[in-house]
Specification:
The chain is an alpha+beta fold. The chain is built from eight helices and 26 strands.
Length: 406
């Protein structure tokens, strides 16, 4: 191996995720994570090993690189895998091509033109329905027929490490008849995965479930911040607005579908049978272990959630097929989030709303404090990895500190 990779690293030879980084002496450029290092793709390109315009690797985002198509981007990934394992490859004896992750600054990996958030975990939708509507009929009549989603705000998606200010807005206090204005008292995270669109479509075209994976470049961890008290007051009749658009946080490395291939698993049985355009063949879910923890300011971290991406009722192929079935066009860099990922067990619930059951069952932290929702000064960390035998592919983390309202 050209470079040492620590045991159980998220960024093994099986991964090779893409991202955008900078260093003190050089601006933004493309790289791949390998162990504790970043392989500088712009520097590698100077060796003349790529058969495409290497200028795309010096952009401030990966959009132009992704636009080259999977035939090219997948070859870059497999070439790097081979080079890293060959002591006589073009990377051998060139330590200057590698940058320590600890000495680099990560940036948004893509320019996100549009962002859609889905609502695709049946466990999460059922829990929310029980709390806010009818415990006996928690799911709305359409939920098992369509992958429910809404158009979110692309401009406020930020990279891991970017602090988020507590949002302000209107809420309706308990037993009140008139709304009040002020900082949210029920700030929440939502554990999600986001996929990056890797191919354009023209207006009027649609993408089938069979073709959907050709249009998905890769995935990131996604924290869809939510202000539950603002949301409760505003979501009828048109759904979330200020409760969601103030911020979403993502992990910096895009893990490709190629890297996740070994971790395909069957999805849940869908009953009633879905309409033909949502039907699919093969395994479209992915076995990705997910964890959320809270670290109070100056305190230690407490894991509070252990979930898995495989729980999703609606898979990514169905989400993309539904999104485009009406002719909606998509573009490279568009981001689509899964919706909160909850499992059947209480410790697998992917939001504080569920973990504390709307604030009635506080979550205990290691320092003895309790959380019903997220407090100022708290840092929320999300991590994810897939493992099968000796093959481990991870996402790193998305870490975000909550600051007081401005």
């Amino acid at each position: 191996m050209i470079i040492n990779i620590p045991e159980n690293s998220d960024f093994s030879i099986h991964n090779i995720p893409f991202g955008i980084f900078s260093t003190q002496n050089k601006g933004k450029r493309a790289g791949v994570a390998i162990g504790d290092h970043i392989l500088d793709l712009a520097a590698v390109a100077e060796l003349g090993v790529f058969d495409f315009d290497a200028g795309v690797l010096e952009r401030e985002d990966l959009n132009d690189f992704i636009m080259l198509g999977k035939a090219t981007t997948s070859k870059v990934r497999t070439d790097i895998q081979q080079w890293l394992q060959d002591e006589h490859s073009v990377l051998a004896g060139k330590p200057e091509l590698f940058v320590k992750q600890s000495e680099a600054q990560m940036h948004m990996p893509v320019c996100v033109g549009d962002y859609t958030d889905f609502y695709s975990s049946i466990e999460h939708a059922t829990n929310v329905g029980k709390m806010f509507r009818d415990p006996e009929n928690a799911l709305l009549p359409n939920w098992k027929h369509i992958p429910v989603g809404y158009h979110g705000r692309a401009s406020s998606i930020v990279i891991s490490g970017t602090p988020v200010h507590r949002p302000k807005g209107q809420t309706l206090p308990k037993d009140a008849t008139q709304p009040v204005f002020g900082p949210s008292q029920r700030l929440d995270f939502e554990l999600e995965m986001g996929f990056i669109v890797g191919k354009n479509t023209p207006l009027g075209a649609s993408v089938s479930t069979q073709m959907a994976e050709d249009y998905i470049f890769g995935l990131v961890l996604f924290n869809d911040w939510s202000a539950r008290d603002i949301q409760k007051w505003e979501y009828v009749p048109l759904g979330p607005f200020l409760a969601k658009n103030f911020a979403s946080s993502i992990s910096p490395w895009i893990v490709t579908l190629d890297a996740l291939e070994p971790f395909r698993v069957p999805g849940p049985t869908q009953e009633p049978k879905v309409l033909p355009y949502l039907q699919y063949e093969g395994n479209k879910n992915y076995d990705i272990h997910l964890e959320v923890s809270i670290r109070p300011e100056g305190g230690t971290e407490t894991p509070i959630c252990h979930s898995n991406f495989k729980y999703m009722y609606w898979n990514m192929a169905q989400q993309l097929a539904h999104h485009t079935v009406n002719g909606c066009n998509i573009h490279v860099g568009d981001m689509m989030a899964s919706g909160t990922i909850s499992g059947k067990e209480e410790n697998s619930y992917g939001s504080m709303l569920e973990l504390s059951w709307m604030g009635t069952q506080p979550v205990q932290l290691k320092d003895g404090s309790e959380r019903k929702f997220i407090q100022d000064g708290d840092t929320v960390n999300m991590r994810g990895y897939a493992q099968k035998g000796d093959i481990r592919v991870g996402f790193g983390e998305v870490s975000t500190k909550v600051l007081p309202a401005k």
